[in-house]
Input
Amino acid sequence: MNSPAFAFTPRARDTQAGRRWRPSTRPIATTGAYLGLACALLAVGLPTWWIIVGALKTTNEIYLVPSTWTPRDPQWRNFLAAWHAAPFFAMFVNSLAVTVAGTVAKLANAIFCAYAFAFIPIPGRNVAFFFVLGALMIPEEVTILPNYLTVAALGYVNTVPGLVLPTIGSAFATFFLRQAFLSLPREVIDAAKVDGAGHLATLWHVVLPLARPVLATLVLLTAVARWNDFLWPLVATSRATTRTLPVGVYFLYSQEGTAQWGVVLAGTIIVIVPILALFLVVQRHLVEGIASGAVKG
Amino acid sequence: MTRHTRRGAISLSAAITAGAALAACGGEATGGSGAPAASSAPVKIVYWGAFGGNLGKTQEEVVKQFNDVQKNVVVEHQFQGSYADAANKLTAAMQAKQAPELVVLSDVWWYKFYLNKALQPLDDLIKSEKVDAKDYVDSLFNEYVQGGKSYALPFARSTPLFYYNKDIWKKAGLPDRAPKTWDEFTKDFVPKLKSVIDSKQFVFAHPSSASYIAWVFQGVIWQFGGAFSDKDFKIQIGEPKGVQAGEFYRSSIKDGWAQASKDVDADFRGGVTVALIGSTGGLVGHEQAADGKFGVGTGFLPEGPAGFGCPTGGAGVSMVAGLSKEKQSAAFQFLNFSTNPRTQAFWSQQTGYMPVRKSTIDSKEMLDFLKLKPNFKTALDQLPRTKFQDSARVFIPNGDEIIGKGLERITVQQEAPSVVWKDITEILTKEAEPVLKLRKALGG
Amino acid sequence: MTSARDARQAIVPELDARHRHLAAFVLFVAPNFLALALFSYWPLVRNVYLSFTYWDMIAPSPVWIGASNWIDVFTSKPFWRISGNTLTFTVVSVGVTMALALAAALLLNQKLLGRDLVRAVLFAPAILPGSAVALVWTFLLAPNYGFVSQLAAPLGLPSIRWLTDPAWAMPAVLLVVIWRRVGYDAVIFIAGLQGISKELYEAARVDGANAWQRFRHVTLPGLAPVSFFLLVTAILASFQSFDVIRVMTSGGPVIATTTLIYQVYQEAFVAFNAGRAAVYATILFLLMLSLTAIQVRLVERRVTYE
Output
């Protein structure tokens, strides 16, 4: 079957080029591929354009049919109105505090716990690990009511500790990190032990540097999840100034409603833009981290 | 009354100007004997509001006026979302022991908190602050009286009105008035209106359950001779008249003159629908949004086979139980201010809600205003003919939503009213049990 | 004698080391275990207790009412509708997202000009707050003046009332959930594609396999582990999607878009019926339990393969 007659590619270069991928020289396939790319771009780009334009329209222009694709008279004041309609700065600070505190606490928990399960040999360790595995099966949504009662009893409703506390237990990240730790070269860690390094020193100087790529991915994933969290902040706050951005923007909508779409959209853009900017910076790392995490997972 | 009516134009320079003028001469309207000494630090009172859009701006203006005219009490207004959101947040906040001192509670919410003894009876305060309780419109004041005690003061009170687009009415050759009966509307008005609107427009729109379709339907079921329930929670919605009213709603969609809408107000303002039944509290919002585009007409609700029927609605302000005397007195000063004749004149003119004070209604200022703005008069004229709502909607927790979801099934899902009301009767009966138990425990 | 002493000397440091290990272990795991116990396990127990009570959350304490919440839920029509909604939502969102993501991945895995840009653009919605995305789509899906209606109008398509028509509300919510997740899944598929040995393709080419055959016999099997990972994480994520539903439809019209997780919120924080919320939460947990158990087992199997 290895007959070269079946090598239906007429291009000798292909075989010479070996495994390197190169632009196809088949015009139809290439056109199709670029058409696909264009479709994908449009599927995100057109709605985005519509939103930006919408944020710059007057209410009357928004309701105009057929719609205009560029604002007749850009209403930059929509952004000003949105900024004044909700305490965006306070909400931004809340989101930042919740994200930073939540990510640090959760990952600290995960790192210590994963280290213990990977490197501290005590009997019954594997049985104890089921406590972590079990928690994997308890999503935030199931615990929402009892956790509200707990946080309320602690007097932490409408506070950053209240927003953070129920989220700091770590099951997935612990599981994920333990796997990563176990795959680290054993000799390096043993060498550290022989040198008399304690657990903290080994963790700090040996394990963490080696696990840096995995950690970076986990930091990003955890931070994104914390930043975007909606259900718990919705439940655990009742004041505009203690809300986080994802909840705050929803309240802007329920306050201004469809009669003020331009302002609501402007507010949404205010919320989205900083995240998008950050995303552009870490985009490559995030995407690759997630990808490699999934493949190795 | 409704979530959707609380939305409106963001710029409200007119309101602010009027507010400032009122604040300037509003000094004597507050005062009161129980105020703490001026030398001590002001008492802070948290007040949870449920008004957004132009109503929210006006609400904030009322708070600002209060904070400007006296120095003993500082009120902090916190917007909580819709009426339901505010009530839900209050429940959650009571768990967290973070309840505000004052809260806006709508017709369907205050009773639940009363049953759980979470609201402060106001009678002693009314007496000690020498508030003229007789000056409140009797029906509105008495709705909050249970066992001889008041558990809220009426603040943003409304009735449903029939709104219509005058320009389209004219184009269709209709007289400049609301239909007198549903029969006239469906047989005469609708065909004429349909001939002048395009395929994307509708004559009428039903709100969602979250925007209180059950409130509008309260009037309709009465117009058909039915009721949600009697006073003692015997559910009657599934009786033949109730089914007939349900059939009427179902046919409104089937016959193509009404649509179910996510935002009936936005549809009306945007010209997608040309008529709706909505709260008086939406009047100013409608007029501002329609300004320059079309004329807004108002009228009484149309009559049904059993004649006229129209409920009261809207919200009062309640005080949370368990406050210190000092806080009670401070909070009551704001309650008093919000419902005093001057503030009510301002609030009413800026929103469309009905004044809750007789002296406001009879004041020369209001009479002059009504001459200028005939639409405002409609609600006031209709008020004497309104009735307090059926227990099933206002006293059963979530009764409003349960009935509303049933109406959604009938309208958007076109289910048979007899079937839907049977389900709803079952649910309402079940949900009424704990209410009856609590009521018994309170000796009611 | 001496030998016994030697033995003791040898054992003592060993015991010490074991204690030290134990102490370190306990210290290291304690914070996480505490947090998990208090905010993951204790709520489960509390849910089970609450599910046998009636409590409107204003009254001072719950009242024991036996199994009647459970009976109510299982005999109510909404429960079955909600379960059906959850199933539809999960199957369609996971299935369509993965199919589209695979197509996008195959496209983006080719050496095309601008593919990194497209990849980033497709991925971006995944990192935005669900509430903001849902808000924006509420605007895009508005009847008549909305983006989708405006696109459909020149084609002579009717203007759909996406969010108020019970037949269209679920598709609308699904559209948004899918739109938001395709890029994320695509990125993982791309990684999977790049993990497939190029020799396999060469060999298949040499064997005379056409494009479809190569896809069928090399690409798909090569993607199996990644697909599995995606399948499981996407199912769990779809169970939890709350923000989009809350913002776009609040579970309506009627209960057309109410899923199990939405119902937990609805009963707990809108209806304030703690007992019934606890029933739904417990049901949700049991479902998660079975799904995650499968996941862990399969992941472990894969780990042992490696």
Observations:
- The radius of gyration of chain A is 26 Å.
